[in-house]
Design brief:
2 copies of one chain form a homodimer. With 226 residues, chain A is mostly helical. The first copy, chain A, is 73% helix and 4% strand. The longest helix of chain A is centred in the middle third of the chain and has 25 residues, at 83-107. Chains A and B meet through helix 4, helix 5 and helix 8 of A and helix 4, helix 5 and helix 8 of B. Chain A binds a DNA duplex (30 and 30 nucleotides) through helix 4.
DNA sequence: CTTTGTATTATTGTATACAATTATTTATCG
DNA sequence: CGATAAATAATTGTATACAATAATACAAAG
């Protein structure tokens, strides 16, 4: 079947436009650009060694996504993820990750379960070593794997975007105090519920997992991160 | 303040690219194009009387949205909303419309309340006249107004997209049997709960409203619509 | 008649050119 | 000196040109 699932996979990372898109997006989400900063086509093109054409296409995509505001005949302006956006996203995510995990208990294949457990084992390994860089990647992977297992391209699409949008925050929370230990334990619990095909429990655990991260954000102080 | 809210407002409908984007999007969502149909840049450009440039930019936006698949160096292909997508969207919407309405009770202004009631009154008027064309527009407007009132650009963005994606389905359900009467009654109930600032009830009513539409879709037979 | 390799054609990817619009500077007048 | 208006520059919007890649047609060999 030609179902493609992850929007991430779908995005063309190898054409010039794809690379420009990823580059600008990363610069916005990582906070390297400032809010309302003007993005001039020629400047970005020169910086990346390409012409205006791929830059324009990338900017139009970012506009649709809401990460860039385009005023016709004027220019493109950075539109960052705000503190309120992050809060909203986490509240929405706590619902949708719950739904996603519920669906995953229904649709996940044995192969996907094995992949998920592998990710989990690696997470447990690197948790002991306090390797936060790697843990961030594995945390992302664990969630992405659940998104795919939900068998819903719609849910996968939305959750993947949200996951990207709170990148900066996740990088901080995962390195905060004992959060990584707790987070990995929660991942283990979610995994066991999914493997046991216990939809109720899986949904509840996933919702709680997101809520716990929210609490961590409160403690860390969101304003200091963004 | 320069907060822009609705992504619909944000989209540039007056540049060539904006018009091309709306045109292709409408042709996909309305079912005028067939699944996996190839979208050739020159052909679409010729049809709309523009060059390839705005067509390409529009196709890239639709790719990001997931309504078009682009295979590098090969072409762009229609990727329609499937029956499963519609089901998934309604389940997700029942959660998110609930949340949206809850937030609306918190943030809605007196002015927005008046606008909402005006929409509602018009709906009640046209419900009596069985004017389904107008009712569809008013139903859209009612929901969009609630999205804005939620004061969450993230939620507004997601829900607005979903609302567009199930356009075809909504046009059918609204004209089905006594659904429009029931739907308008439910809108009235939601409005009253919001005006009374009763968050619990507003959320519950909104969730139920979406679920009732889902039941209507089951009866209508989704496969016959798409 | 089928298969395979080559030539041709069609289509996309990127760069550039030109037009339209907006921002900036400069000159003029009060 | 300050305000206003014209001239100039900078930037975006669109079209087109050229290069790279993929699809197609066709011919020759088996």
């Amino acid at each position: 079947m030609g179902d493609r699932q992850s929007p991430g996979e779908n995005r063309d990372k190898y054409s010039l436009r794809g690379r420009v898109y990823e580059s600008i997006r990363e610069d916005i989400l990582s906070g390297r650009y400032q809010q309302h900063m003007e993005l001039k086509e020629t400047a970005i093109g020169a910086e990346l060694g390409v012409s205006r054409t791929p830059v324009r296409e990338a900017l139009r995509q970012l506009e649709l996504e809401g990460l860039v505001d385009i005023i016709p005949n004027r220019g493109a302006y950075v539109n960052m993820i705000t503190a309120k956006d992050v809060n909203d996203i986490y509240i929405i995510r706590s619902m949708l990750e719950g739904l996603c995990t519920r669906w995953a208990t229904e649709y996940i294949t044995e192969e996907q379960l094995e992949d998920l457990e592998e990710t989990l084992c690696l997470s447990e390994y690197h948790t002991k070593k306090d390797n936060y860089e790697k843990l961030y990647e594995l945390d992302s992977l664990f969630h992405e794997q659940l998104y795919r297992a939900s068998n819903s391209r719609i849910l996968n699409h939305v959750l993947s975007d949200f996951h990207d949008y709170v990148k900066r925050v996740r990088k901080v929370t995962i390195a905060y105090q004992g959060r990584s230990v707790k987070s990995t334990e929660e991942h283990r619990a979610i995994f066991e519920a999914v493997r046991a095909r216990n939809a109720e429990m899986a949904e509840e655990l996933a919702k709680e997992h997101v809520k716990h991260t929210m609490e961590c954000i409160q403690v860390c102080g969101l304003e200091k991160i963004l």
